[in-house]
Amino acid sequence: MSIRVTVWNEFRHEQQADHKSREVYPNGLHLAIADALKEDPKFEVTTATLDEPEQGLPEEKLNNTDVLIWWGHCAHAEVKDELVERIAARVRDGMGVIVLHSGHYSKVFRRLMGTECRSKWWEENDRERIFTVMPGHPITAGLPEYFELPMEETYCEHFNIPTPDELVFISWFSGGAVLRSGCCYHYGAGKIFYFQPGHETFPTYYDPNIRQVLKNAAGWAAPCSPAMKYGKHERIEAK
Ligand code: ZN
Asked: What's the gap in Å between 237 CA and the centre of ligand 1?
């Protein structure tokens, strides 16, 4: 059965005249991310953007999403609280969510984490080296021990997130920073993955290793557990 992935992008920078992101992602970075997922036929990929009706995620679409990918930056405040609560409820019930780059400060991620989710940051065209620190984890499958991006925006510890349930990547930046850049969480029946690379003016989402991470993460985050029962139950062992 295919995994239904919805790539949500606020899609604002790429529509601003003269914004550098237009050169890199002329049709919006959601399409570059969607193309990465489409490399694997097990994913059924659609996109959604903030300015679409119901902010791109009407109830039916959200209910038919197995994994939601979230990219936002300058319009976090415009995302309606009601939508954030619906997304959180879907994750609690089993939907996966992958939060990318500046999505760390989205309402959705902060709601799910319960913390401020801020870090230090600078935009100085630094090189990023991403280390796999959990070999054998599904998200690191097929990736080298470490790989590099020639330029990324730097995020630096301390990153004010809860301690991840599984930490799969740590990044080093040539400006002297380090960051827990690939963080997994379990939330109710759902899974959450935060992945730091993906500034809108760099071609990060065309990088083959990054695309591999996105595909691996979407596979990992897909709902798979049997439905659990809660409340009063008859004893399991006979007396
Ligand atoms: Zn950025």
From this structure: 54
83 Cα to the center of ligand 1, angstroms: 23
Amino acid, res. 102: S
pLDDT digits (tens, 9 = 90+) for 33-56: 999 999 999 999 999 999 999 999
> Comparing C-alpha atoms, which of 90, 99, 97 is closest to residue 59?
90
User: How many Cα atoms are found within 13 Å in the side-chain-facing hemisphere of 72?
Assistant: 26
Q: How far is the CA of 63 from the centre of ligand 1 (A)?
A: 29
CA-to-CA separations, 116 to 9, 63, 161, in angstroms, rounded: 21, 27, 7
Structure tokens at 174: 């040539």
CA of 87 to the centre of ligand 1 (A): 23
CB atoms within 10 A of CB 42: 13
pTM over 0.90: yes
Give the bridge partners for 194, in sequence order.
99, 183
